[in-house]
Amino acid sequence: MTISDERGMFIQGLWFLSPREGLDALQQGALLIDLRSDELVEMKAFSVPECLHLPHSILADHAGELPKDRLLILADTAGVYTRSAAMALKALGFEQIACLNGGMIAWDQEGFPVSTDPGALLHGDCACVMRSRKDRATET
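The structure corresponding to this sequence follows.
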């Protein structure tokens, strides 16, 4: 699957897909690469045909595990890390790469499929001390 000029935006050498365009591409065989941390993926995950969780901090070390013959859609929480991840993959010879514009936040706002773990959602009296219920269960 390749990206065409018919969808997405091409900005400074990178393709950016809206959540709708990303979902369409995923339904046609693209692979979503979730760059978020383990904790964020545990709280809320993309519920799509194929998703590989590969945090941005270790992406370069595991790039050899990624297919070069399909479209890879890079996603994070809000689109902060996708640009640098896409550039790193391009430098390693990957050509079929797109960034999910707005990340999980935009995806969720559009009402697209997610799965959540209520025990992993953050709870607390103040944002400065919020943590998941799972963390609290391990303390007792």
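The first strand starts at residue 9 and ends at 11.
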